[in-house]
Specification:
Helix content is 34%, strand content 28%.
Length: 471
């Protein structure tokens, strides 16, 4: 076994097990094949080890024997100083951040996490919504790296006891990025998170987000109304903001005055008046929204409906002839209505001003280079889940170099679109929250139904869509 073998094990493969598991079972994962995860081991009882690992990891296991010396080298290198070669290649030079960003950009990362622990400090990239370890930084070099980030973000390098927030502007390979920097004091030092905010709005397009033809038509019809509210719901990281920006881009016409209130401004849109929230100086949602109504707007975008006061001002803006766009944290399209009622907004006002409620999620797409077709297994589904008749097969994630050994590459949005028509205004006004019949009558596909469609097409896996199947 050569030294090069130790370096070529991808970090996402090594993350299949913890350091404790690696040393306890004396195993090191080295690759992923259609037969399962491939482990090196010096164990004398391969059958028992394979059985235990299959139970623990819930996946197929392939064991390859090696000598105790070879295994110890693999263990020590990969679980003590893994990726030291990668991080050393940065040389901790003044442009280390730009080089790190090139890596993040090439891999499609949205966030970079710097995390100090007792004996090591790691760097993870968030790719397609999941964190993947990329580098391990020697503990003694971590403070220097933190200070360099702080200096670039114009933060106080002497302040290590309190959280700080800053911003960095970078031009890499002709692409401009804003990087939002957040520091957090934790047990072993300061954790940093760098959010990459691309200034390139050309990548945002309603036709490329995942809407079906009928869904896009329905959504666009709601945008043609001169007044009312359109609310996009979903948990953090479900793509709500991207849908909002794509909507604004389509609505951006010379004859309209569009105002936005955001925290933060993630994309710069020419022709739209964007306001960055600054609560520390009194520039908050409520005060700015009241000012917006004196700025002769046609369209108002509010980053998020956070509380009753914001909701009521948004309703008032819609009543006085403005089109209002915003997001709200609920789990379904109908749940948005319940949330507004909980905030104290009268149901008759919701019925008269809400044009559309849209719920969305993001699911990772299976890598076309390595996904495998498999027979259906009822144990993969939630308890008492009724498997649709049209679902005969499914595809599973494997992992290869093309997808960084995750089995997934890219994400697609799922939507649940509820246009508020005359037939729905009475149930909303009377607070009738039994919705199954309403969805059937209006031929509205739920998030669960759209998830099943993607599984059937082989776009995503049962495992990835599982949270939607339980709803």
């Amino acid at each position: 076994m050569t030294e090069n073998t130790f370096y070529n094990i991808h970090s996402s493969i090594l993350q299949k097990i913890s350091s404790e598991q690696a040393f306890h079972y004396r195993i090191v994962p080295i690759d992923h094949s259609q037969d399962g995860i491939i482990f090196k081991t010096d164990s004398s009882n391969l059958l028992q080890l394979k059985t235990e690992l299959h139970i623990i990891l819930n996946t197929n296991i392939v064991l390859e024997k090696c000598t105790p010396e070879e295994l110890q080298t693999l263990l020590t290198f990969n679980y003590r100083t893994h990726s030291s070669k990668k991080i050393n290649s940065l040389n901790y030079s003044d442009d280390f951040l730009e080089k790190l960003l090139i890596d993040a950009q090439n891999m499609g990362s949205s966030d970079i996490h710097f995390e100090p622990y007792e004996k090591r400090c790691r760097v993870r990239f968030r790719i397609d919504g999941k964190l993947i370890e990329q580098f391990v930084i020697p503990k003694e070099k971590y403070p220097t790296m933190v200070n360099k980030v702080k200096i670039k973000a114009d933060l106080d390098i002497a302040e290590k006891r309190l959280p700080q927030d800053g911003r960095i502007s970078i031009n890499t390979n002709g692409n401009e990025f804003d990087i939002r920097v957040s520091t957090l004091p934790i047990l072993n030092g300061e954790k940093l998170v760098l959010r990459i905010l691309s200034k390139d709005s050309t990548i945002i397009d309603l036709t490329k987000l995942g809407f079906s033809k009928n869904e896009l038509k329905t959504y666009r019809e709601s945008l043609k109304k001169p007044s009312g509210i359109i609310l996009i719901s979903g948990p953090t990281g479900s793509g709500k903001t991207t849908t909002l920006y794509a909507t604004l881009k389509e609505l951006n016409k010379e004859e309209d005055n569009i105002l936005t209130l955001e925290d933060p401004i993630e994309y710069t849109l020419d022709g739209i008046n964007q306001v960055q929230l600054k609560e520390n100086i009194g520039l908050d949602f409520v005060k700015t929204l009241k000012t917006f109504l004196r700025q002769d707007p046609n369209i108002i975008m509010i980053g998020e409906i956070r509380d009753a006061e914001t909701a009521n001002i948004a309703i008032r803006a819609a009543q006085t002839g403005h089109l209002v766009l915003s997001t709200i944290h609920t789990n379904s399209a109908w749940g948005t209505i319940s949330r507004l009622i909980d905030m104290g907004v009268p149901s008759f006002l919701i019925a008269s001003t809400l044009n559309m409620s849209l719920a969305q999620r993001l699911v990772r797409k299976l890598c076309n280079n390595c996904k495998v077709k498999s027979e259906l297994d009822s144990s993969l589904f939630p308890t008492n889940f009724k498997i649709p008749q049209e679902l005969k097969f499914h595809y599973t994630a494997v992992g290869c170099n093309s997808c960084h050994h995750t089995g997934y590459k890219g994400r697609e949005a799922l939507y649940e679109i509820l246009p508020i028509n005359k037939g729905l205004r009475v149930p909303i006004r009377e607070n009738l929250l039994e919705i199954d019949s309403i969805f059937k009558e209006n031929k509205i596909l739920t998030l669960k139904q759209n998830a099943i469609k993607l599984i059937n097409k082989g776009t995503t896996s049962i495992e990835e869509a599982y949270p939607l199947l339980t709803s």
